[in-house]
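Quick question, first post here. What does this chain look like in 3D?
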Amino acid sequence: MQNREQILQMLSRILEDEFEIDAADITPEASLYQDLDLDSIDAVDLVIKLQQITGKKIQPEAFKAVRTVDDVVSAIQQLVNE
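> Answer (accepted):
Ran it through. Tokens below.
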């Protein structure tokens, strides 16, 4: 079981390594689309990467409402704790 802090660290590493986002920009309140400048293709890539790491199938509906880094953390935490 992973806690929010561990999930946030994992997500931050992905965003830094895969999407070349500055670590200082990755905060729980940061908007994926406005602040971090991800687009819909990036979001799909992020979901695929998270599926590989968690070993869980992520339903697209689960990510439709995701807007911020914290939203992603919540979605992943819910998924891994099911």
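The CA atoms of residues 21 and 36 lie 7 Å apart.
The chain has a mean pLDDT of 90.
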